[in-house]
Amino acid sequence: LGLALCVMSSTAFVYHDYCIIGAGPSGLQAAYFLQQAGRDYTVFERSHAPGSFFALYPRHRKLISINKRYTGKSNSEFNLRHDWNSLLSHDRRLLFKHYSHDFFPDADTMVHYLEDFAALLKLQVQYNTAIIHVTLEKDEQAWNGHYFLLTDQDRQNYKCSSLLVATGTWVPNVVNFPGSEYVEGYETVSINPEDFAGQTVLILGRGNSAFETAENILGVTNFIHMVSRSRVRLSWATHYVGDLRAINNGLLDTYQLKSLDGLLEGDLEDLAIVKDKKGKLHITLRFYLEDRNTSAGIDSITLPQDELDNFATRAPYDRVIRCLGWKFDFSIYNRSLKIMPGKGYKKKYPQINPNYESRSTQGLFVLGTASHSVDFRKSAGGFIHGFRYTTRAVHRLLENRHHGVPWPSTVYPITQLTNSIIKRVNEASGLYQMFSVLADIILLRENATAFEYLEEYPVGVLAELEMQTGRKAPSGLFVIIMEYGRNFSGDDKDVFYYNRAVGEAQHAWQSNFLHPVIYYYKRLPTEHEMKLRPPDWPLPRPDAIHHIVEDFLTDWTAPNAHILPLRRFLENCLSTDLRSFFAESCFLFTFTHQKLPPFCRQGYARMQGLLGSEGLRRHAVEAGLLEDYTPTDLGDRRPDSHRESQGQLLRDHVITVRPLQHLVNAKDE
């Protein structure tokens, strides 16, 4: 290693501000945003084409990411809620629906799509370049106090100020136990069902790759057993797309309907496999083999069925297949980067912060599937339809940190607060896919006369919002996020029980299905408060909270059930009136109130608003929103003069000062 470093020190480096390792979906997505911003970057890809993972996986070539081509709506942002394969770009040709008509597309189509994405957008990808070593070089002048030094398979060296790791998880998970040499891996096992005809098969694992493999051979085997340390988790119960999907769960039918196949739970590290003279594989337990010579033959080895004659796996198997998923490749990173695996069930991912930056190395960001530790088993950050948004969030963080470009925002008058929220919760795809992880932030201006709207910010770093975005939050804020009900998701949950949904606004807090939740804070939460937030809460306890009641159509536009309760919640938080008024109402306010509502102050008082017409006035009268001041006893005769018209109105209608609810002709949407 020392010799290698000496050689590196005497070799010229090719420099880029940003280096991206991996030209999979997340790497290409990051490259797109950097290119749109005009940044200096390059992407290193070990294969000859992008998306090399999809050239091999899934082995049986059917993706489980849905390709819903029709939604009944033309809103492109809304349609991305149901398009799980497209990357984000300005080019409408690069929507996945133009590449496949299948609801569950073929993996080869994904490879073709990624090739077009890189080519049509002219992304800077350096193919056939495998990065084999990454280390640090301290330098106070560098963006993060150090440079990243990369070496490829040809010993070409590169230097970068910021490193974006988009390699995914591609190293197969392997469990070592006595006899594991007889196990075939998912990555190499035959995908021809005829190779399994009349055989008895044991599958290690219980994820989608395991069930995908079982589905492929279900009709030709004697029977299939599947063993894993945990019980099967169904995605419709956990609401996590990485759990078992219905497209692959045929073995559950054959198990529960008594057709020989079955599922077992057990720690794989406790197993052992013994091969007999006929080539059959017998399952036993590791402790039976302790202090015994396995080469002496199976007859000298105690099997579980020797002591328990109805042992579940007493029948021998022809094949054992390992389908245990993948893990991150830590091998190429020097100790100086201190990249460490997570703990427990997150050990297959590197440790990162909620802003997707390495916990130990500033300037190193992890994107895509490898960043899934932030929301593992909670949201969609490990899949294209999730990490396309988290990658955009990382880019926005980098733009602010290194180039002084604040997080994109829009400033609106306070009268547009309700409409802005309703619009976003009904169409935003990032909030919908990355529920409980990304949120819209509304920063209130002084005296709540206006607000600044930030889209899809990572809630895990809410306490750092001002530093991370370049925006100020001096007067409080709203956080808009999507959530499932607190006790609705889980391995053992019955999500089809009777009365599983609520439909009335007063019970909105009991909503189970995905629905918008608005948190109100009088000040920005601190880091300490973020750490002390209640279990399973994405945010600390707010000063006020509002649930918009779940909707069967995910269409939160009902005037009484959705919009009116939201508006009243916002009014209570801001101590103001957010209703919209006709000009006549604003006119009456000027004579009866010392302070006009915001809509009148910012519209009518500034000579702004819709130009009235007889048709609009008549519609408002018929709807009960305006008083009808039309003379009723004059018939069709018009007054001879303006003075006569005024006199007639005074005689027919005596205007008195009434309570606010009678004076105001408001549109309670």
UniProtKB/TrEMBL annotation:
GO annotation (BP), single: ERAD pathway
GO molecular-function term, one example from the UniProt record: monooxygenase activity
Cofactors demanded by this protein: FAD
Regions of compositional bias (Basic and acidic residues) in chain numbering: 634-648
Keyword line: Endoplasmic reticulum, FAD, Flavoprotein, Glycoprotein, Oxidoreductase, Signal
Region (Disordered): 629-648
Gene Ontology, cellular component aspect: endoplasmic reticulum lumen
Subunit text: Interacts with SEL1L. May interact with OS9 and DNAJC10. Interacts with TXNDC16.
Described purpose of this protein according to its UniProt entry: Probable flavoprotein which may function in endoplasmic reticulum associated degradation (ERAD). May bind non-native proteins in the endoplasmic reticulum and target them to the ubiquitination machinery for subsequent degradation.
Family assignment from sequence similarity: Belongs to the FOXRED2 family.
Stated name of the protein: FAD-dependent oxidoreductase domain-containing protein 2
Annotated organism of origin: Semnornis frantzii
Gene designation: Foxred2
